[in-house]
């Protein structure tokens, strides 16, 4: 099983969600994060005091999928979240040791 | 014989009775004017509204979220504590006229006596001019409430609550009440006898608070991270709401200072509106030119600068004078909040000095110019603009020195008694949690 951590632009969330659902991915966890890579931040000005804000808001989507589905999910997320501009984001693929469904105690693929 | 006595007895009785009706055992034998009273009751509410929640929200939005409650708390407690100070001794020290007479300079030119301590002698039927004295007391109280709250803008995000409270009580007693007395208690008052024109509090409120703010900002020191880390306002939305309330409430502040529902009040309202709008547009224009974009914080700060500057002038200038005052104050306060502050390096967190100090000085001086009938004003109180400027300048310089020196001393005393500033950990954690164990916003998570 693989954990896919997808950091994408906030307005890409809907398309990514639909793309993953289309592949049969049944659930996901979404957080609001801030970050930067190559994308520059922005400037704010308050009564003559200028601040450079490095961090840009992004959305992080986490899904756990079976090994067989992982590559397809990566491609789907890329297609849904891509604009071609700097700041599109990244996908981190992390191996998962175990998954447990809290309600029933099921483990492994049955718990995804 | 008995019949004649009876007739004359009745006439004497009637005559004596009329004497007692007419003799002023109360402050002025003026009749209660319902229109004046109704307006002043309303104006009082408007000025309280300027503090609660006008100023409170204006300042609250400008600080970081972790300190939002501390600012609201300071404004709210000012309203509460200054009420007690005022009815205890503040009103007496400001408006008691024992020992005062026109042209005589004595101690009572600078501070009132204790004849009205705990409002002694004031009853439901006591009068001040054409309005009940109770209304006058409460109206003036709202001025005494907002002035210390203004100072809070300079030491926001790092001052101890206990220190702020102690400072406010001492300051309103030692600084506010005397300056109020000098300007407004009547003939024999220091500024009054000089012919100073200060309709609603350019010296009493704005220069007073602005200079105290500067002294406090320098004494308490800069916020941690000032100049290195961004310290942006956490909610300009709230700030705009507060600024809007200040604008509306200020009609009570200026037009209410006419103490009557008359042409003077009407003109005060008009010039207030003109100066405010002009100053706001001026600030906006300067920013647009200098930085390429107009900003919301800029336009509302400009508006407040205009409101401050027109305060002393609102009883004596006309609309064109207000236009000029708005324009100049917009420019000067912008300079104060940006260039001057950066050059001198002090951390006046919410620009209390730049807006109230500089705005008050500009307004007080320009009052001396635009009160002249030749410039559309309602009339100087001195023989020429030059003489008027002289009087205005004396009041400005006196207030600056008086407030500056005494604020410094009071802060020193408060520092010794309770300490002025929170420690590093408390400042990092945020005053809301550190001083009040509360959070302004309890978002889920």
Q: What do these coordinates show?
A:
The complex is a heterodimer of chains A (112) and B (445). Chain A is an alpha+beta fold and 112 residues long. Chain A has a single domain (2-111), classed as 2-Layer Sandwich (Alpha-Beta Plaits), CATH 3.30.70. Helices cover 22% and strands 37% of the residues of chain A. Chain A has two helices and six strands; from the N terminus they run E-H-E-E-E-E-H-E. Chain A has helices at residues 13-22, 67-81; strands at 2-8, 29-35, 42-46, 49-53, 56-65, 89-95. Chain A has a four-stranded antiparallel beta sheet with strand order 2-5-1-6, covered by helices on one side. In chain A, strand 3 (42-46) and strand 4 form a beta hairpin. In chain A, helix 1 (13-22) packs antiparallel against helix 2. Chain A is elongated, with a radius of gyration of 17 Å. Chain A starts with a strand and ends in a 17-residue tail after the last strand. The longest helix of chain B has 33 residues, at 385-417. Chain B has 15 helices and two strands. Mean pLDDT of chain B is 94; it is low at 19-28. Chain B has one domain (32-102, 110-436): Ammonium transporter AmtB like domains (Ammonium transporter fold). Chain B starts with a helix and ends in a 9-residue tail after the last helix. A two-stranded antiparallel sheet of chain B has the order 1-2. In chain B, strand 1 (127-128) and strand 2 (131-132) form a beta hairpin. By secondary structure, chain B is mainly alpha-helical. The interface between A and B is medium-sized, with 9 and 16 residues.
């Amino acid at each position: 099983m693989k954990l896919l951590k997808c950091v994408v632009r906030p307005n890409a969330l809907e398309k990514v969600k639909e793309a993953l659902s289309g592949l049969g991915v049944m659930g996901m966890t979404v957080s609001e994060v801030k970050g930067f890579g190559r994308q520059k931040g922005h400037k704010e000005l308050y009564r003559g005091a200028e601040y450079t804000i490095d961090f840009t808001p992004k959305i992080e989507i986490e899904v756990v999928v079976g090994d067989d589905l992982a590559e397809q999910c990566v491609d789907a997320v890329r297609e849904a979240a891509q604009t071609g501009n700097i700041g599109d984001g990244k996908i981190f693929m992390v191996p998962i040791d175990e998954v447990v469904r809290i309600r029933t105690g099921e483990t492994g693929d049955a718990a995804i | 014989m008995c019949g004649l006595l009876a007739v004359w007895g009745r006439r004497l009785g009637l005559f004596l009775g009329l004497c007692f009706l007419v003799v002023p055992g109360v402050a002025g034998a003026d009749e209660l004017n319902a229109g004046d009273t109704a307006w002043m009751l309303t104006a009082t509410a408007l000025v309280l509204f300027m503090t609660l929640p006008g100023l409170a929200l204006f300042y609250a939005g400008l600080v970081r979220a972790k300190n939002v409650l501390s600012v609201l708390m300071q404004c709210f407690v000012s309203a509460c504590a200054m009420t007690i100070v005022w009815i205890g001794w503040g009103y007496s020290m400001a408006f008691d006229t024992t020992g005062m007479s026109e042209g005589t300079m004595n101690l009572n030119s600078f501070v009132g006596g204790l004849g009205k301590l705990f409002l002694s002698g004031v009853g439901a039927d006591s009068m001040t001019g054409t309005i009940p004295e109770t209304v006058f007391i409460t109206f003036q109280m709202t001025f005494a409430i907002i002035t210390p709250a203004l100072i809070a803008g300079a030491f926001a995000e790092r001052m101890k609550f206990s220190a702020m409270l102690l400072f406010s009580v001492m300051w309103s007693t030692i600084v506010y009440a005397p300056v109020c007395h000098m300007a407004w208690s009547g003939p024999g008052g220091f500024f009054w006898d000089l012919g100073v024109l200060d309709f609603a509090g350019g010296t009493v409120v704005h220069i007073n608070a602005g200079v105290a703010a500067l002294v406090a900002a320098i004494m308490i020191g800069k916020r941690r991270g000032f100049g290195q880390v961004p310290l942006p306002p956490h909610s300009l939305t709230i700030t705009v709401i507060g600024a809007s309330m200040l604008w509306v409430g200020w009609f009570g502040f200026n037009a209410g200072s006419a103490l009557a529902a008359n042409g003077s009040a009407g003109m005060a309202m008009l010039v207030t509106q003109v100066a405010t709008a002009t100053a706001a547009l001026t600030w906006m224009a300067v920013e647009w030119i200098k930085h390429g974009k107009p900003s919301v914080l800029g336009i509302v700060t400009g508006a407040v600068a205009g409101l401050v500057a027109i305060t002393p002038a609102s009883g004596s200038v006309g609309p064109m004078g207000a236009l000029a005052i708005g324009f100049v104050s917009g420019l000067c306060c912008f300079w104060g909040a940006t260039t001057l502050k950066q050059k001198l390096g002090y951390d006046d967190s919410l620009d209390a000095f730049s807006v109230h100090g500089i705005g008050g000085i500009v307004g007080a001086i320009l009052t001396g110019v635009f009160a002249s009938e030749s410039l559309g004003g309602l009339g100087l109180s001195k023989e020429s603009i030059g003489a008027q400027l002289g009087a205005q300048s004396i009041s400005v310089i006196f207030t600056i020195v008086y407030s500056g020196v005494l604020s410094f001393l009071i802060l020193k005393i408060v520092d010794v008694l309770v300490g002025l500033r929170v420690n590093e950990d408390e400042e990092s954690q945020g005053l809301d949690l550190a001083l009040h164990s509360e959070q302004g916003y309890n978002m889920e998570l």
